[in-house]
Amino acid sequence: MTSDELEKEIVDAFQGVPYPGDDHLVSHACWECEELAGQLKGTPWQEWASRPPEDLYMRGGGICLLRADAFKYYLPAYLIASFGDQENYIQNQLIGILTNPRSNASAGVTESELAEREAWFRKRMEGFAPAQALIIKKYLRFILLEDITGLANPEFVKTALRDFEALYPAGKESAV
User: Fold this and answer.
1) Cβ distance 23 to 92 under 8 Å?
2) How many CB atoms within 10 Å of residue 172?
């Protein structure tokens, strides 16, 4: 499979995801969230996907600031943009977001902090349509098998894939 073929599948899987609304893009009202919301307001994910990856570099961390519905809406733009990302910044952001916080918890993180992070993770991961869950798994397998230059650590990709498959087992992509 090529990145162009996978991109077409991503577009097909996410085509019908509704825009969450201008007032439902970011999780809270800090300056970073307000700036990100201002940049995304009214902009279809397809437009972001067609921009150079550098446009998303500045917003790569922004995917963490999105509310769950906005995350699901803009995720395909980040998936697609990552194919042209020579620095793999976007891919590494996506891998981190698709990994359960319990799988990479740092020393010193309290159980309550970990529980809060896991709730954030689960809220973003729940509710993908079967075709969307399948394409996310395909994306993770693709970047792992393609041995993309500069990928921080293939083990991180394997962990993200394992965690996502735990939520959406093969053949049961609508489990969550």
Assistant:
1) no
2) 12
Q: Give the residue extent of every domain in the chain.
A: 9-167
**Structure confidence at residue 137 (pLDDT):** 94
CA 171 distance to own-chain centroid: 21
Single out the residue of 173, 171, 76, 83 nearest to residue 128, CA to CA.
173
Q: How confident is the chain (176 residues) per 10-residue block, as mean pLDDT?
A: 92 94 83 80 86 66 82 92 78 87 79 89 90 94 74 81 89 57
Distances (CA, A) of 103 to 106, 114, 164, 168: 9, 10, 11, 16
What one-letter code names the amino acid at 117?
R
Q: Tell me which residue has tokens 């790569």.
A: 60
Q: Amino acid letter at 129? A: A
Secondary structure (3-state) at 66: strand
Report the alpha-carbon distance of residue 65 to residue 39 in Å, rounded.
Answer: 13
Query: Which has the closest alpha carbon to 95: 142, 44, 43?
Result: 142
- Cα dihedral 128, 21, 55, 72, rounded to 10, equals -10
